[in-house]
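Need tokens for this chain, all 324 residues.
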Amino acid sequence: MTRPLAVFTDLDDLDPAPGIALLEAAGFEAKVAVSARPDDIVRAAEDAVALLVGYATIDAGLLDRLPALKILATMSSGYDMVDLDAARARDLWVCNLPDGCTEEVALHVLALALAMARQLPQGDAVVRSGGWTVDLPRLPLRIGDLTLGVVGMGRIGTRVAEVAAPLFRRVAGCGLQHPGETWPDVADRRDFATLLAESDIVTLHVPLSPETENLISTPELARMRPGGFLINAGRGGLVDHTALLAALDSGRLAGAALDVLPVEPPLPDDPLLTHPRLLFSPHCAFLSGTSRRAYVERPAENVIAWHRTGTPLTPVLEPERTPR
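Here are the structure tokens for all 324 residues:
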């Protein structure tokens, strides 16, 4: 009997071996496409019933070339790389990885917030250039005097609020929580505009969609407290980088920390790269040995659950008809 085929579209720096082992033990043939280009995906997955998706763009044109496909399992909590309307029109399951790196991202965001408020990157640069305390560009801030604003109170946003609450004077939150989750006691509920105005540090934890693209642009930056800080460890498209650069240059923002960018890695001539008040990390907020394994195992488990029971573990789109 021919085994069903499952294909990883792209892996970045992930090791597919644990996911492949799970799929093969469950009776699948498993492959990895040589690149995220549509032609390479089609060559690997022409007969596939399942795609395990990293950052590859899954649109209507690609889906038309994969007639056997039944399920798309993303290797991230976000699924903006999948055209949901095209998947819905083809009666496909779409499922995601909602909690593979919650702790990693929450603590990474907290580290970025503390580093900016306490002037750690600037302090490092001062020492390396032969300076000392008097050469710091501004005084470090007392964390207990600050308000942290969390935009998006899903799993990660809620965890950020929980780990930050003992350190900050106050934590404010806005946005719809995920189904089944309750609003955390540690965060004061605010609307978006009020949160921007009241927060010393704003961190973004919402999915990228047409509604949230450039969620932070010139009007929103103008509402933030003068001398505030912005953190984005969600999706690069949430922030208008032209507006961000202007806010940093004008001094409206004291600093920003970016783990995600619209183009990754950034182009060498990106003006943000040389800005002294920008702190970067290379899209690694999610990363640890534990999460790295989960990112290939959990999508495989979604595909296996669908194959065995007809339903994946963490669906975000269910077909109107439920083909097997």
